[in-house]
Amino acid sequence: MQPIRIDAADGSRRTEIGPGLRRLAVIAGRIEVDGDRYYLTHGDGCSVCGAGIEPGRPLYFDPYSGAVFCPSRACGREAGRSPTMNG
């Protein structure tokens, strides 16, 4: 499975996700819960280059490895052709 594209990060540390990604985020150890809202955490930045995830910009999440990629690093993993999913 290719990394999942999330169209726009909410912030540099976390992005709200819906029910479709919750289980994957839990398995990957990238979940944060705040009341009834669930977030994919990415405060550690891109898993390849360490660049911060910028609010409003796309990010890619690999549910198998738990890695998060910035757009420039994800394209090498063919994430540009992965399905778009925002929860």
Folded structure, characterized:
- This protein has two helices and six strands.
- A three-stranded antiparallel beta sheet has the order 1-5-6. Strands 2-4-3 form a three-stranded antiparallel beta sheet, covered by helices on one side.
- It has one domain.
- The protein has 87 residues and is α+β, with helices and mostly antiparallel strands.
Write the layout of secondary structure elements.
Layout: E1 4-6, E2 14-17, H1 19-28, E3 31-34, E4 37-41, E5 59-61, E6 68-69, H2 71-74
Antiparallel strand pairs: 1-5, 2-4, 3-4, 5-6
Mean pLDDT: 87
Number of helices: 2
The portion of residues assigned to helices is 10-25%
Distance between the termini: 17 Å
Apparent shape: globular
Rg over CA atoms: 11 Å
Structural class: alpha+beta
Given as residue ranges, the uncertain stretches (5+ residues, pLDDT < 50) are 78-87
Strand % is 15-25%
Largest sheet: 3 strands, antiparallel
Total tally of structural domains: 1
Question: What's the total number of strands?
Answer: 6
Order of helices and strands: EEHEEEEH
Oligomerization state: single chain
What would you say about this model in short?
The chain has 87 residues and is α+β, with helices and mostly antiparallel strands. The protein has 2 helices and 6 strands; from the N terminus they run E-E-H-E-E-E-E-H. 16% of the residues lie in helices and 24% in strands.
